[in-house]
Design brief:
The protein is an alpha+beta fold and 275 residues long. The chain contains 14 helices and six strands. The strands form two sheets. Strands 1-2-6-3 form a four-stranded antiparallel beta sheet, with helices on both faces. The protein has a two-stranded antiparallel ribbon with strand order 4-5.
Length: 275
Amino acid sequence: MLKDSLSALFTAHCIEDVALLPFSECKVQKGYLLEKKEGFCPSSVILFLLPYYTETPDNFSAYAVCRDYHFFIRELENTLLPKLEEAFSPYRFYAFTDHSPIDEREAAVRSGLGVFGKNGLLLTEKYSSFQFIAEIFTDAPLSLLGEAKLHPFATCFQCGACQRACPSGVLRGEGKECLSAITQKKGELSADEERLLRQYHTAWGCDICQNVCPYTKRAKEAGTIYTKIPYFLEKRICSLSSDLLASMDEEAFGQYAFAWRGRQVLLRNLKLLKE
C-alpha cells in the first residue's frame, strides 16, 4: 500500500495500478543501467502499469495505435520525478521501462500487479495483457513510501488458448519467431513468412495470443480494459496504409512504435497484404 502523498502523485497522471517492491527482491539483468547513475544505490522500486488499449486496429497491433509509450515515460520524467524528489527530499528517483535494469514481468508479479501468462506476457484482471510495465528506482527506504506485500511467482491458469491460436507456432515450440517479429524483419521475407502476413492481415505486430486470452474477454466484458490515460487516447491511428505513411513527415512518423524499423518494412508488408 502506498502512502497517500505518493499515491496522489500517480493519480494525478491517471495511473491507477502502482505497487512497491524492495530492490533486493528484483532479478537484476542489466545492472549497468543503474551503475551509470553515479553514487546511486537503489533501495526501493515503484512499479506501475500503463494500460493502452482503446480499440482493435484494422491491420496492426493495438500497442501501436497510440504514440510510442517511451515518449510518455519521458514526459513523466519531466513532471513526476521532480515532484517525487521534492516530496521525498533528499532521495533520488530514476524511471525505466522496457530497457530496464530488472526483469519487469517477474517484478510486477512479485509485487502483486498480475500473473505471468503462457504467452510470456504479464496478465492482469483489469487490462489482460494490454498494458506496459514501468518502474521508478529510488534510494528512499521502503518505509518512507509505503508497505510492500511480496507475492509468490504466479502464472495464469494455463488454458492453452494462446498456444493453440499462435500463427507461427512459436508458443507451441514449433516455430522460431512469432508473427510480430516476422513483421518487423528487414529485407526479404520467406514465402511462408509472406503467407503468414497475408493470412493474418497484419502489417505490424500480432495480438492474436492476447485477443484469444480469457483474461481479455473478461476485461472487455467488465469494461476495464480501456485506458484512461489521456496520452494514449490522443493522436490514434486505426489503420495503416501507404497513403497514410506518405502523408506523415519524419517527426510525425517517428512518434509511433512502428517507426523504429523504418518505412520500407511497413511498405513491404502493406504491399503483401494487397496481393
